[in-house]
Amino acid sequence: MKSMWKQAGVVGAAILAASQSALAEYGYNLQVPASKVAQDVFQLHNFIMLVCLGIFVVVFGAMFYSLLKHRKSVGHKAANFHENTTVELVWTVIPFIVLMGMAYPAAKVVIDMKDTSNPDMTIKITGYQWKWGYDYLNDDVSFYSTLSTPREQITGAAAKGEHYLLEVDEPMVVPIGKRVRLLITANDVLHAWWVPALGAKQDAIPGFIRDIWFKADKIGTFRGQCVELCGKDHGFMPIVVEVVSEEDYKAWVAKKKGGAQVAAADNTKTFDTAELISRGEKVYQANCAACHQANGMGLPGAFPAISGSAIATGPIDAHINIILNGKPGTAMAAFASQLSDADIAAVVTYQRNAWDNKMGDAAQPAAIASARGGAAEAAAPAAQ
Amino acid sequence: MSDAAHAHDDHGHHAHPTGIMRWLTTTNHKDIGSLYLFFALFMLFVAGSMALLIRAELFQPGLQLVHPDFFNQLTTMHGLIMIFGVIMPAFSGFANWQVPLMLGAPDMAFPRMNNWAFWLLPVAGFFLLVSFWLPGGAVAGGWTMYPPLFIQGGISYDLTILAVHIMGLSSIMGSINIITTILNMRAPGLTLMKMPLFVWTWLITAYLLIATMPVLAGAVTMLLTDRNFGTHFFNAAGGGDPVMFQHIFWFFAHPEVYILILPAFGIVSQVIPTFARKPLFGYASMVYATASIAVLSFIVWAHHMFTVGMPVTAQLFFMFSTMLIAVPTGVKVFNWVATMWKGSMTFETPMLFAIAFVCLFTIGGFSGLVLAIAPVDIQLHDTYYVVAHFHYVLVSGALFAIFAGLYYWLPKWTGHMYNETLGKWHFWLSVIGMNIVFFPMHFLGLAGMPRRIPDYALQFTEFNQIATVGAFIFGFSQLILLTVVLKAIKGGEKATTQVWEGAEGLEWTVPSPAPYHTFETAPVVK
């Protein structure tokens, strides 16, 4: 019933959508802005829509009047006029003037958006198939951010949560009121980073770095998605930005740094096989299952199976190598820069012992570190 | 399919092969025109079915019917086929039928090349469709074929590149034929500035095709060598640039947008004066507006790329040049309205589609203007707003004009009036269905729903459900079109030579159906 009312309201609301910023919260207009740029774009859009609406009413008012009055069935006789230089000049010049009136405010916003100078902080963002990597250049914090919506919600086996598909394990956190410069690039294919409420969108281009900026003026959680087709899971790599107070931001940075030390300590440990397998399963679900599937069977023709594969049941060095360096020309990414030694050791061990692969052997973090030796340089992206 | 065509045979002067060989070997512009139109009609249902599968998947959040990779294959193939397999062949069909008839020419300038240009198309169509059954499935990188994603795919990606080459070849040959016919084979006295506007728009379109198809061929050839022969045109690690592909691609694809709409302008400019019983208001300014749109189309391409991160001057240049296109486009809309003004209008199906075209294409034009504003485009780029925009210009624009032209000339082609009641049903269901599908997509885009995703967040549910309902109304109402066409071919009320009371031009001086050979002696135009 509720949705019926909503549907009935669509047509009427369409007419109002242009001018009523209040309608934004009902989803008929751009999202409620949380930065100055987004606010400027919001107002620009409303202004353009109003002008368009005005023109539409005048031109099609005339047309529909004509359709009613100048029809043969009401006995209207056709006039025979055509070609009138004055009229034709008028309807060429007036639109031109109207367009100039639109171009001026638009140009001001373009110039403002493009000015990325004097940032308070800089974050490098890297798009991967299919997750985002964040490097805080001033605060020395780095992490990956992946979709946290459980698989069961997507397949319909569980009820969908409030932020279905728009939730991640590690949000990007920024302080309010700071000019944040984003350096955006990609590791494999094109992606695009977009948070509508912040008015920030930029294509992520492998091998090139492009920059944009925003300054959030509201505390809150803002959600967006990848908006450049990047393969199978394009629809499943959301972006979450948490805008917090300066103090909360500092606390968050301190916490992240503590976490990084714990993770680094793991890289020098020796684990038993059971520990590696249980840790490896989590790494596998987060990084590998999208293509190779949770059951290790892959997708025939597109993504190879790991269960029973020559690599996962062959020499362990070759197995480690393909995870570190990927397979050029395919969707298989190089994970050398994405996963820690402990995580790679765990996932290799998991893959060699799960499903039909009963290899019984294990890789330790130390083995990954030594495999990295020469490989790390070869795997480093050219642009960095 | 061949019943009506056989009837034409009686008028022929030579012994013709019959059955399939007749169609394979035909060099007659009317036969080839029909072949193009039947091909387009068939592909409309193929690519339309893909659209319905896409909309069915998007009826609710979650993955229900298709796997994400297959979803991407559907969106990619829907786009490629609708553009290269439906809209372009349909316009070529109109050109083949109408250009010689409107010019008083006996046939196209190069009849054998004409045959070749058509028969390449089913080959390309076969390559595209068969790729669904190859390992890895059909191409899933979007119709824009952006690298590096396009480099990752399997064998069907190479096959698609081949298909694009073949379709480009077909278009170039068709265009050379059309230009030569128009420039050399006009009836005595038919000067360029007396040509029907449909012929003018196709002349300009053909030049656009010749200018841009080789550019597309270059772009996809570079993809092919990047994929198979170790080049790095679009790979930064080898000194290339993925964005360069986008520049080259859109240098082709923006003029392509006008290739898809200029002949539509031409058709509508024939239909409206006929049913308003009043000459086109500004013939000369319509010709100049068409030419200006064509010229401008070469300097606006990067407005498809505002989010790649261009220098501020480039951003401003492409924004201003894009906005400028609104001027000649406005001139066209004003002219159509002024042609209707104080006319004596009747509302047969072709006129209904033409009026819907003017109104709904203008909505697509306005959303185009919104998207021309670079800061707004940056918010809306790659969202459903863009999907709404280009479907308003391609469905209620190009496709509705094709419908208008089809109903308009069908009596001349078949010799029978189509069923007006069914025509009106087709019109009303199409126009209502079309708006239910695509209007809510503006809101989805504004609210932040990206395009090309198989699953979406919960706040987008209602509008997606509305759109899916509309899609099924629109899709299934095209079966009425099929019925109308088949019924008109089989029989019905005999059409007169003039067909429409207000129709003017050489094509209305030959009997209905148009004999197999027309204008063997050129008419004289005063």
UniProtKB/TrEMBL annotation, chain A:
One of its GO terms (cellular component) is plasma membrane. Its cofactor is Cu cation. It is an enzyme of class 7 (translocase). Residues 275-355 form the Cytochrome c domain. The chain crosses the membrane at residues 48-68, 89-107. Binds a copper A center. Pfam families: COX2 (PF00116), COX2_TM (PF02790), Cytochrome_CBB3 (PF13442). Its EC number is 7.1.1.9. Residues 1-24 form the signal peptide. Keywords: Copper, Electron transport, Heme, Iron, Membrane, Metal-binding, Oxidoreductase, Respiratory chain, Signal, Translocase, Transmembrane, Transmembrane helix, Transport. One of its GO terms (molecular function) is copper ion binding. It is found in: Cell membrane; Membrane. The keyword tRNA processing does not apply. It catalyses: 4 Fe(II)-[cytochrome c] + O2 + 8 H(+)(in) = 4 Fe(III)-[cytochrome c] + 2 H2O + 4 H(+)(out). Gene3D superfamilies: 1.10.287.90, Cupredoxins - blue copper proteins, Cytochrome c-like domain. InterPro entries: CcO_II, CcO_II-like_C, Copper_CuA, Cupredoxin, Cyt_c-like_dom, Cyt_c-like_dom_sf, Cyt_c_oxidase_su2, Cyt_c_oxidase_su2_TM_dom. It is a multi-pass membrane protein. It comes from the Bacteria. Residues 118-255 form the Cytochrome oxidase subunit II copper A binding domain. GO terms for biological process: ATP synthesis coupled electron transport. Residues 22-117 form the Cytochrome oxidase subunit II transmembrane region profile domain. Subunits I and II form the functional core of the enzyme complex. Electrons originating in cytochrome c are transferred via heme a and Cu(A) to the binuclear center formed by heme a3 and Cu(B). Belongs to the cytochrome c oxidase subunit 2 family. This is Cytochrome c oxidase subunit 2. It comes from Sulfuriferula multivorans.
Automatic annotation (TrEMBL), chain B:
InterPro entries: Cyt_c_oxase-like_su1_dom, Cyt_c_oxase-like_su1_sf, Cyt_C_Oxase_1, Cyt_c_oxase_su1_dom, Cyt_c_oxidase_su1_bac. Its EC number is 7.1.1.9. One of its GO terms (biological process) is electron transport coupled proton transport. Pfam families: COX1. GO terms for cellular component: plasma membrane; respiratory chain complex IV. Signal peptide: none annotated. GO terms for molecular function: cytochrome-c oxidase activity; heme binding; metal ion binding; oxidoreductase activity. It is found in: Cell membrane; Membrane. Its main location: membrane. Residues 23-526 form the Cytochrome oxidase subunit I profile domain. The keyword Glycoprotein does not apply. Keywords: Cell membrane, Copper, Electron transport, Heme, Iron, Membrane, Metal-binding, Oxidoreductase, Respiratory chain, Translocase, Transmembrane, Transmembrane helix, Transport. Pathway: Energy metabolism; oxidative phosphorylation. It catalyses: 4 Fe(II)-[cytochrome c] + O2 + 8 H(+)(in) = 4 Fe(III)-[cytochrome c] + 2 H2O + 4 H(+)(out). Belongs to the heme-copper respiratory oxidase family. This is Cytochrome c oxidase subunit 1. It comes from Sulfuriferula multivorans. The lineage of its organism: Bacteria, Pseudomonadati, Pseudomonadota, Betaproteobacteria, Nitrosomonadales.
